[in-house]
Every structure is written in C-alpha cells, then in structure tokens.
Amino acid sequence: MNNLCVAHRGFSSIAPENTMAAFLLAMEQPEVQWMELDVQLSRDGVPVVIHDFTLNRTTNGKGLVRETDWSDLQQLDAGSWKGKAYKGERVPALIEVLDRCCGKVRLNIELKTQGNMYPGLPAAVIHEVRKRHMQHDVVITSFEPTALVEVKKLAPEFKTGLIIDARPGDLAAVLRQMNCSFLSIGYTNVDKSLMREMRNEGIQVMAWTVDDKTIMKRLAAIDPELMLCTNRPDVWEQAFQETSSRFFRP
Hints:
The protein contains 9 helices and 9 strands. Strand 8, helix 8 and strand 9 form a beta-alpha-beta unit. Helix 1 packs parallel to helix 3, helix 4 packs across helix 5 and helix 8 crosses helix 9. The radius of gyration is 18 Å and the shape is globular.
C-alpha cells in the first residue's frame, strides 16, 4: 500500500478542521505527505481557511464569511466546538498555513466558491502561493469550473483539479477542456476503469473522504497511484501496516 495519504482539513478527526492545530498535528504524522484545506475570502479580501460559507458551525460567530472582515474573523473561537482543549483556536489566514507548510508538506487548496461569489479568490490564492515559490507544491481544486479556468488563465503553471462526486461519461473530455491534470472524486465512484482512463489522460486522482480501514485497503488494491484523502491518518497508518505485514511476513 503505497497510496499517498492526504489529511482532510488537517487531522480533523481529532483537532478542529481547518485550524493550525489540525494542520500541525497532521504534519507530525510521518505518513501525511499532503493536506487538503478550504479557502474563501474575508470581506476585505484576505484569503482565509474555512470550509462552510457561514461561520455558525465551526466558530462562535454567525453570518457569512464573505461579509466578515479579517480583523473580526481573528477574534472568533474556531476550536471550542471540537473540545475544551482547542478553545481559542482561530480561523487561519492562508498565509499562515503556507508559511508553516512550505518545504514540509504539499497542499490541495480547494477554492470554496459558487458561481461568482468570490471573483478575486483565484488571483488572491495564486499571489500568496507564488510569493512563497510553492507553485509546484500545491494543486488548486474546486467544484466550480469557472474558478479553475480562471486559475489556468492567470497562472498556467499551476496544477488544477475538478472536484466531483459522480462519474459522468464525458469526464475525460471535460477535464481536457478545462486543462485539469488532477481529479478529486468521491471514493464510491472509483474503480479500475476510472483509474485506467485517467492514467491514459495523465490525470492524477484523489479519492475522498475515506475513514474506514477496509475501504482504504480496497481502494489501494485498485491502484497504487490513487491518493487517499482522510480525516483519519491514523487509520491510514493501520491499513498500511497491516498490508505491509501481509507481504513481508517472515
């Protein structure tokens, strides 16, 4: 089992998702070579790391992320919902995560947007990544095709990837048209034929979000190049150890 382990929003089964606590904990795990995170814009244009369009679920704030200034976002508690040990965790700015990860772990940066919600988001993310010369250590992904097209228009050197939870018949053609070289797909859609088709197209594939050890092993058996995105890097490690021991038993 050589499949790359991608920590989904950091080590989010233990620490509060998309916080520095979750990212730092994930980076302590030797099996984690990639992390996935979500980026939106504050009202004053700061790229911030948070999944939901509203603040309600993962912070003690209310309202929309895009209607809140960065100075106000910094005051929010983004950790207490997960447990007392994480009280005071903040919503991080993208620059904080990039600075801590540079040279240590690669990043799948999801542009969290719909339609024209964040017209300046692709440019803002590109700017911060380029400033740190991390273009080849990240992939920019999104459910929103127009955001990915904008990334390639502004920064052709960036790798981009479509996020889907389906298996359309024209998938290869769609990715080719968008100039995507990465596919982030719900794990139930993954089989040998998909992996064969994507390999022929030069597309790297990541399956999300897999927390069950048996399913991890099944997916790993389909293709060793399939990346596995998980909230549970510890379960990935268990699957890896059990698979390795089967092949290397004395």
